[in-house]
Amino acid sequence: MTDLPPPPPGATRIDFRGGATPLLTVGVALAALLAVGCGVMLAGPLTSENDDPTTIAVARVVLICGVLLFGAVALGGVVTLRNLRRPAGLLVDHDGLDWWQGHDRVRLASWDEVGAVAVSYMRKPVALSAGAAIGNALIGVQGWSLEIWMSEATLGGRSRRLLHVPADPAPVDGLPPVRYRLFLAPSPDVARATAEAVAAAAPQRWIGTVERPWNPVPGS
Length: 220
Hints:
Blueprint: E1 12-15, H1 20-43, H2 53-84, E2 88-92, E3 96-101, E4 104-110, E5 114-123, H3 130-139, E6 141-150, E7 163-164, E8 179-183, H4 188-201, E9 206-211
Parallel strand pairs: 5-9
Antiparallel strand pairs: 1-2, 2-3, 3-4, 5-6, 6-8, 7-8
């Protein structure tokens, strides 16, 4: 991982990418092993009952597809891991919120511009079938995000990472109508760290962790 300067005094740096690295590494290793295994089997002699040529040909095609598929997955994972070496995430301090990536920082919003802020999530409605209900319980909540209500001015496209959200109802009355959303890494630990950092830096603007209406459409 790239060496980073320490965060400024009183600031909290939240890495969105660090938690994904170990899991992705295991996935890359598994895909690589499967690709190698298919390659070893392909290189060896293929036999079947009665040495049926059709069965052997089908097995050879399946192994070739396995090498190509698992090899592509492993290669894609290696490229992603290389990109993850440059960490990125949220920097919270007493002045506001920044997006940081490597050594670069971009101001998302200062506390003077913010009327209120919360961490939000969605919970998928419980399905009728037992299997779907178990799946929902395992997945739990999803769509963790940071909700920012602006006190006066809009951000004017300052960062493409902040999405303007005009439709969702506000969790409490009296909030400003202009609302932005920053999607967090899909991790309860990241959401918890973000909530703690924002609550400590701007307690007068923090309204807590709230549930927003279920919407399965990505980016909404």
